[in-house]
Design a protein that fits this description.
Blueprint: H1 7-27, H2 29-36, H3 41-70, H4 72-93, H5 110-141, H6 148-178, E1 180-181, E2 187-188, H7 190-210, H8 224-241, H9 263-278, H10 283-289, H11 295-300, H12 319-341, H13 348-376, E3 385-392, E4 398-403, E5 407-411, E6 415-416, E7 420-423, E8 429-434, E9 437-442, E10 450-458, E11 461-469, E12 481-486, E13 492-496, E14 499-504, E15 513-514, E16 523-528, E17 531-536, E18 545-554, E19 557-566, H14 577-600, H15 607-631, H16 637-660, H17 667-698
Parallel strand pairs: 3-10, 12-18
Antiparallel strand pairs: 1-2, 3-6, 3-7, 4-5, 4-8, 8-9, 10-11, 12-15, 13-14, 13-16, 16-17, 18-19
Main location: membrane
GO molecular function: oligopeptide transmembrane transporter activity; symporter activity
Family: Belongs to the major facilitator superfamily. Proton-dependent oligopeptide transporter (POT/PTR) (TC 2.A.17) family.
């Protein structure tokens, strides 16, 4: 088909669906841990990076199985089935109603949801990691030796399918997650957000199987990684056996393998080890880079995503693939040629060093942004403290005295105050004075909590209610919270959109409820005595909490007052773009250049060893985040960002020093030299054999 084997189109479609499946699931994973499983930030981050590390450890196993045992086709097929099962199990594990027998909106047996989720993630890691090194190589196998141009075009299409799959899924799945679904209670739709990637994985598998009769299937020919490992292992063992001084030293420790292994192989491994030595500092870059899906997503939950349309916190990750698609051609066709024209020696290792530096700057930007976000957080009571807010629902001004003689506050009609902090043990009562009337509200054993005193003057006396506010932090999911207080003299039934707040007696308060779409306006309805009054709500924004008082009904129109308990998110998500831009620049300089450099410095038959080493650095980088998230005692998030920025900067300096001692080689020249030496040795052996034969004939 157009000069290409027809089979490669099945492989490209398969890769698009698989990447959609993986990145779609991964995009919403951190918020799933935090909001559905209710894990705290550090634990959610640790589990997320454990999963990513596992995904990057599995390719080594997949490559060994494919090259030494099953072959690429069967490896892809069997692991894709495991992968698909994992996606399905994860989707089932995220069903809220699975164990919600009392229909209260929370699973009665959260352990079952957690167990299913973890089993699903292990299967996914095994599947996606195991097939990672096989699919592209299997595609390359479909071409003949004289189809180099078509093979190159295939790899371009292949990587385009990866980027388009990840881009599309990172846009779509967060929208699905933010929608509501459920049998008994409507909640964020994680089953569908994981279910769609599961369906795409099934499609990927079906497409791959349909093309099975067209594939060129190369038989397993042994894995070079195993050969390298055996050679290195033998050299170490042999050196240890001959460690005494009576044995002469050898030029290189790998030369101790020469008794068993070919000199050519040993020379190739030496070249590879020189590159792998440079890999030692690289995990720190990946420790920073992969936090886009964890810490940066959690950072976005405390920000305002109103771009004229609402961006979900986990959708901000899409900035990276968009910038990659834009920047790679610009850097290749404009920036690098310009640097070359300026006669600057911008070697691959210098590019990688610059990439690490930019990665460090990206986390400095994230830290500065976090400082601004922290300024918008409400201050909650510390140990031994209580906070009190006043709401005057009456038409007469009032003064509230915090007894004994702590503070006196004036409150205007139909108005309120912010939260005021007191030592809980000292605050004994609140004395309300309004017009000629007064009332004392006794307080007993205040906890480390927020409280609201709502009161109202009437000719017969002052009515009041003292409420414990059950909110201890900003809403975790970025949505806003709303509650109602009944300022009518009769009992009213309150609804807002599809949310039913139930019947409220005079001066009673409902519980807080999350607003499904905080950027929408809802109809607020109050029903009493066969009368129904309505009014449209304002847009609540994200991350706020409000008390709404129901005041009066005039010609079926409800009059209400908003009291802001927690301010909504004010720092805009667009402020994350600079840090994404810096990190994407870092990726272009570091990741693209790193693989290109690695491949240029090693023999062609050793590329899989370098790919395994590269993927291993990604896995180790995620393990670093796992350790820091699990063991760190840092309380402030901005300080953790600074820590990672500082660590990467130190590693960047170490890498620059290591790189300055590196000598670039041309593997092809070395291969030619070896080939020449081998021919000379063969000729010498042949001459020796001829001389021996001649001597024998003379005898």
């Amino acid at each position: 088909c157009f000069g290409f084997p027809l089979s490669i189109f099945f492989i490209i479609i398969n890769e698009f669906c698989e990447r959609f499946s993986y990145y779609g699931m991964k995009a919403v994973l951190t918020l799933y841990f935090k909001l559905f499983l209710h894990w705290e930030d550090n634990f959610a981050t640790a589990i997320y990076h454990t999963f990513v590390a596992l995904c990057y450890l599995m390719p080594i196993l997949g490559a060994i199985v494919a090259d030494s045992w099953l072959g690429k086709f069967k490896t892809i097929l069997y692991l894709s089935i495991i992968y698909m099962i994992g996606q399905a199990v994860l989707s089932v594990g995220s069903i809220n109603d699975l164990t919600d027998h009392n229909r209260d909106g929370s699973p009665d047996n959260a352990a079952l949801n957690i167990a299913l989720s973890m089993v699903g993630l292990i299967f996914i890691a095994l599947g996606t990691g195991g097939i990672k090194p096989c699919v592209s190589a299997f595609g390359g196998d479909q071409f003949e030796d004289d189809q180099e141009k078509q093979r190159s075009t295939f790899f371009s299409l292949f990587y385009l399918s990866i980027n388009s799959g990840s881009l599309l899924s990172t846009l779509v799945t967060p929208i699905i997650r933010a929608s509501e679904c459920g049998i008994h209670t409507k909640q964020e739709c994680y089953p569908l957000a994981f279910g769609v990637p599961a369906v795409l994985m099934a499609v990927s598998l079906v497409v791959f199987v349909i093309g099975s009769k067209m594939y060129k299937k190369v038989k397993p020919q042994g894995n070079i990684m195993l050969e390298v490992s055996k050679c290195v292992g033998f050299a170490i063992k042999n050196r240890f056996r001959h460690r005494s001084k009576e044995f002469p030293k050898r030029e290189h420790w790998l030369d101790w393998a020469s008794e068993k292994y070919d000199k050519h192989l040993i020379a190739q491994i030496k070249m590879v080890l020189k590159v792998l030595f440079l890999y030692i500092p690289l995990p720190m870059f990946w420790a920073v880079f992969d936090q886009q899906g964890s810490r940066w997503t959690l950072q976005a939950t405390a920000m305002n995503g109103d771009f004229g349309f609402q961006i979900q916190p986990d959708q901000m990750q899409v900035v990276n693939p968009i910038l990659i698609v834009i920047m790679v051609p610009i850097v290749d066709s404009l920036v690098y040629p310009l640097i070359k024209k300026c006669k600057l020696n911008f070697t691959p290792l210098k590019k990688m060093t610059a990439g690490m530096f930019l990665g460090s700057l990206a986390f400095v930007a994230a830290a500065l942004l976090q400082v601004q976000i922290d300024k918008t957080y409400p201050v909650f009571p510390a140990a031994g403290q209580a906070q009190v807010k006043l709401i005057n629902l009456g038409a007469v001004p009032a003064t509230v005295q915090f007894q004994p003689q702590l503070q006196s506050v004036d409150v205007a009609p139909n108005n309120g105050t912010g939260y005021m902090t007191f030592e809980a043990s000292k605050l004994q009562s609140l004395h309300i004075v309004s017009a000629t009337l007064n009332k004392t509200e006794p307080l007993e054993q205040l906890k480390k909590q927020r409280y609201t005193l709502a009161f109202k003057w009437s000719p017969t006396g002052i009515n009041s209610t003292f409420i414990q506010d059950n909110v201890t932090s900003k809403p975790e999911n970025g949505k806003s919270l709303v509650r109602f207080i009944n300022n009518f003299p009769v009992t009213v039934n309150v609804t807002m959109g599809d949310m039913d707040f139930g019947e409220l007696d005079p001066l009673s308060v409902s519980n807080y409820s999350a607003v499904p779409k905080p950027d929408w306006s809802y109809t607020i309805s109050a029903s009493f005595s066969q009368n129904t009054c309505t009014v449209g709500s304002k847009e609540f924004g994200y991350g706020g909490a409000y008390t709404i008082s129901l005041n009066d009904c005039v010609e079926k129109k409800l009059t209400i007052t908003y009291f802001e308990d927690i301010a909504p998110n004010t720092v805009h998500m667009a402020w994350q773009i600079p840090q994404y831009f810096l990190l994407t620049c870092a990726e272009v300089l570091f990741s693209v250049t790193g693989l290109e450099f690695s491949y240029s410095q090693a023999p062609s038959n050793m590329k899989s060893v370098l790919q395994a080493g590269w993927l291993l650095t990604v896995a180790v980088g995620n393990i670093i985040v796992l350790i820091v998230a699990g063991a760190s005692t840092i309380q402030e998030q901005w300080a953790e960002y600074v820590l990672f920025a500082a660590l990467l900067l130190v590693v960047c300096i170490i890498f620059a020093i290591m790189a300055s001692f590196y000598t670039y080689v041309d593997p092809n020249e070395i291969e030619v030299q070896f080939s020449k030496e081998e021919k000379e040795e063969d000729k010498k052996d042949q001459d020796d054999n001829e001389k021996e034969a001649e001597a024998d004939s003379q005898l």
